[in-house]
């Protein structure tokens, strides 16, 4: 999902991604290799429970209606976050895109929204298993997920994008840092287990602990 997301962004916001399928084939094997090595070096602490069991347990902690709106909002949450922080840096980097400098481009608004929706869904698919499988505190999940998004989405490419002006790379790094942690915060708030409450009931059969 990360590789596809990056290629999609390059296609619509620049003119130098001319062979998207080649980029996908080039990036995917090393990313899968790094993923496997990382999983091998840092195995899950609770190895007795399968991910399928963890997945089912996680989604049993709220009602179907509660999960429905949370999942829908989480799937599109990247769109307004990206747009908001993007507008903040337009006064500093907008001219580069308008002039087509360094191979940069600005897609029409309708195209931008469609691309953001697709990217938001891809981020959602990639992050949901992480949130479900997380075994630590939600605060640590937010920090870890936010930093991971920042590194994978922006930091690596800003460090490697030596053809861009340093000031532009710095501003975009701050932008991506902010929207990565904002996006991670929204995902954790929506998808992580909530506080446990005990509803009032006079029936011993319906007096169950639930999450909100």
Percent of residues in helices: over 70%
Mean residue pLDDT = 82
**Largest beta-sheet details:** 2 strands, antiparallel
| Alpha-beta classification | mainly alpha
DSSP, total strands = 2
Order of helices and strands: HHHHHHHHEE
Strand order in the largest sheet: 1-2
Distance between the termini: 30 Å
* Radius of gyration, taken over Cα atoms and rounded to an integer in Å: 20 Å
Number of domains: 1
Low-pLDDT regions: none
The gross shape turns out to be globular
Number of helices: 8
- Content of β-strand: under 5%
What would the keywords be for this entry?
212 residues; 8 helices; two-stranded antiparallel sheet
Characterize the structure shown:
The chain has 212 residues and is an all-alpha fold. It has one domain (2-41, 51-196, 207-211). It is built from eight helices and two strands. It has a two-stranded antiparallel sheet with strand order 1-2. The model has no long low-confidence stretch (mean pLDDT 82).
Concise structural overview:
With 212 residues, the protein is an all-alpha fold. It has helices at 2-13, 20-41, 51-59, 64-76, 78-99, 109-133, 138-160, 166-191, and strands at 196-197, 210-211. Helix 1 (2-13) packs antiparallel against helix 6 and helix 7 runs antiparallel to helix 8.
């Amino acid at each position: 999902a990360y590789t596809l997301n990056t290629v999609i962004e390059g296609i619509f916001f620049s003119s130098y991604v001319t062979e998207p399928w080649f980029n996908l084939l080039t990036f995917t094997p090393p990313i899968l290799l790094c993923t496997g090595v990382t999983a091998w070096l840092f195995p899950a602490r609770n190895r007795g429970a399968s991910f399928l069991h963890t997945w089912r347990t996680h989604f049993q902690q709220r009602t179907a209606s509660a999960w429905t709106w949370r999942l829908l909002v989480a799937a599109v949450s990247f769109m307004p976050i990206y747009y908001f922080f993007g507008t903040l840096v337009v006064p500093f980097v907008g001219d580069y895109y308008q002039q087509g400098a360094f191979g940069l481009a600005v897609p029409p608004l309708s195209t931008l929204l469609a691309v953001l929706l697709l990217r938001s869904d891809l981020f959602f698919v990639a992050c949901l298993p992480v949130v479900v499988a997380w075994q630590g505190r939600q605060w640590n999940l937010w920090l870890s997920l936010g930093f991971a998004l920042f590194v994978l989405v922006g930091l690596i490419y800003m460090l490697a994008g030596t053809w861009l002006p340093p000031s532009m790379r710095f501003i975009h790094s701050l932008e991506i840092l902010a929207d990565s942690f904002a996006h991670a915060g929204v995902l954790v708030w929506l998808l992580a287990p909530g506080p446990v409450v005990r509803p009032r009931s006079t029936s011993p059969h319906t007096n169950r602990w639930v999450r909100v």
